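Structure in, sequence out. Go:
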C-alpha cells in the first residue's frame, strides 16, 4: 500500500511539473514581452533537470559499509565508513545518506553523524565516516543505507534503501582482577556439616578413631587390633578450584553491572588456570559445562553480550529447579543485585549439601545495601554462606581472600 502511494505521489508531481511548463509557456505566448519570456527561459533549465532526474534511478548506486573490526568491548569507540559508488556521472544537486542501525546504537549515538548531506555533483565515488563514542553491550545489526535526492524545486524526489547489512558484537566491559580460590574441600562447607567429606582413598596419611559415617573399607585392622579400639585410615582431602556460576537475569537496574562483574570473574578464573561452568535462566535457559581455556571464555562472553534481564523466575526458584548443581563437585557462585529470604534459604540448603557457596551482591557505585539485606547477610553467614558486597567499578573482591 505504501509503495502504491509513493508511486501515485511521483506521478502526481510529474503531472504538476508538466502543468508548470505549460503554464509558463502559455503566459509567455499570451503576455509577450521580455519579463514573461525571461521567466519561461529561466524556469526551463530547472524543469528539464527535474525531467531528467525523474528518469534517473538510484538502483545503480552501491553502498559498502566498512567496520574497522566486528568485535568490541562495551564503552569502546567504533569508527564506521560508508563508501558510495555510482554507475553514471549524472549530476546530483544533493544526496542525503543515512545509515540505519539498531535502536540501542541510535540511543548511544550522541549526534547525527550517521546522517550526512552531500553535494556530489558529477562525482561517482564518495565516502563518509562517523563514530559511535560509547558502544553498548549487545549484538548489533546494521541494515540498509537510506539514500535520498531531488531537484532544486522539490518537485521530483528519489529515495532508495541500499542493502548493506553488517553485524557487530559488543562484549561486556570487564575489569582486570586477580582470582584467588576460596579455601574449600569437596562436600565441606564453611561451617560444621554432618555430610561426608569426599577424600582421595588412594593416599592414606594417617589413622584416627572411628567416626559415624566412616566406610567399613576405611578400617585399619592392624591398628584396631593393637589399640583394641576401632581405628580408621585418614585420607588426604582433595581440593578443587572448579567454579560454577549462576547469574541472576531478573529485571534489575544493576543488570549491566552484574554482567560486567560476571565477565570479569569468569575471565579471572579461566586465566588462573581453573575451570568454570556457567548458567543463566533468562527467557531461554543456557548452561555451559565446567571447562577451561580461551574458547570456553569466548563462548561465555558471546552469551553475555546478548543476554537480557528478561527472566520470569526469581533466583531462588531457579536454584530450586537446577538439581544438577548438587552433583557438581565445585564452588557455587551466585551473582545477583538483590538479597532475599527465599534465596538465602535455598542457598543454605545447597551449602549444607555441596560445600562452599558464595553470593556476590552487586550494587551501584555509591549504593549501600538496605537494612533488610544486612540482616539477611548475617543470617547467610550463620548458614555457612559467604556474602560479598560488590560495587560497580570496584570488582577486585579477592584481595582479602587467602589462597
Amino acid at each position: 500500500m505504501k509503495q502504491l502511494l509513493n508511486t501515485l505521489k511521483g506521478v502526481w508531481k510529474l503531472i504538476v511539473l508538466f502543468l508548470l511548463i505549460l503554464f509558463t509557456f502559455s503566459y509567455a505566448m499570451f503576455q509577450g514581452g521580455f519579463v514573461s519570456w525571461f521567466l519561461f527561459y529561466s524556469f526551463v533549465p530547472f524543469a528539464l533537470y527535474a525531467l531528467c532526474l525523474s528518469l534517473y534511478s538510484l538502483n545503480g548506486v552501491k553502498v559498502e559499509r566498512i567496520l574497522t573490526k566486528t568485535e568490541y568491548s562495551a564503552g569502546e569507540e567504533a569508527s564506521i565508513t560508508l563508501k558510495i559508488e555510482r554507475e553514471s556521472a549524472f549530476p546530483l544537486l544533493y544526496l542525503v545518506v543515512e545509515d540505519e542501525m539498531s535502536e540501542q546504537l541510535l540511543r548511544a549515538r550522541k549526534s547525527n553523524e550517521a546522517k550526512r548531506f552531500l553535494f556530489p555533483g558529477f562525482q561517482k565515488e564518495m565516502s563518509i565516516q562517523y563514530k559511535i563514542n560509547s558502544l553498548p553491550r549487545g549484538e548489533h545489526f546494521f541494515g540498509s543505507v537510506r539514500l535520498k535526492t531531488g531537484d532544486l524545486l522539490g518537485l521530483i524526489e528519489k529515495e532508495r534503501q541500499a542493502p548493506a547489512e553488517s553485524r557487530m558484537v559488543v562484549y561486556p566491559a570487564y575489569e582486570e582482577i586477580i582470582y584467588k580460590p576460596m579455601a574449600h574441600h569437596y562436600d565441606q562447607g564453611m561451617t560444621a556439616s554432618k555430610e561426608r567429606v569426599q577424600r582421595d582413598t588412594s593416599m592414606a596419611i594417617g589413622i584416627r578413631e572411628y567416626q559415624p559415617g566412616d566406610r567399613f573399607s576405611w578400617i585399619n585392622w592392624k591398628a584396631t587390633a593393637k589399640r583394641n579400639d576401632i581405628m580408621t585410615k585418614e585420607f588426604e582431602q582433595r581440593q578443587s578450584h572448579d567454579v560454577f556460576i549462576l547469574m541472576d537475569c531478573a529485571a534489575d537496574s544493576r543488570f549491566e553491572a552484574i554482567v560486567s562483574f560476571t565477565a570479569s570473574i569468569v575471565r579471572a578464573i579461566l586465566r588462573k588456570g581453573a575451570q568454570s561452568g556457567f548458567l543463566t535462566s533468562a527467557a531461554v535457559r543456557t548452561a555451559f559445562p565446567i571447562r577451561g581455556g580461551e574458547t570456553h571464555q569466548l563462548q561465555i562472553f558471546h552469551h553475555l553480550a546478548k543476554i537480557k534481564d528478561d527472566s520470569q523466575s526469581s533466583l531462588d526458584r531457579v536454584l530450586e529447579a537446577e538439581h544438577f548443581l548438587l552433583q557438581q563437585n565445585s564452588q557455587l557462585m551466585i551473582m545477583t543485585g538483590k538479597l532475599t529470604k527465599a534465596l538465602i534459604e535455598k542457598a543454605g540448603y545447597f551449602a549444607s549439601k555441596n560445600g562452599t557457596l558464595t553470593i556476590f551482591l552487586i550494587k551501584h557505585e555509591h549504593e549501600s545495601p538496605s537494612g533488610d539485606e544486612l540482616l539477611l547477610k548475617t543470617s547467610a553467614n550463620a548458614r555457612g554462606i559467604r556474602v560479598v558486597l560488590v560495587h560497580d567499578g570496584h570488582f577486585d573482591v579477592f584481595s582479602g581472600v587467602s589462597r
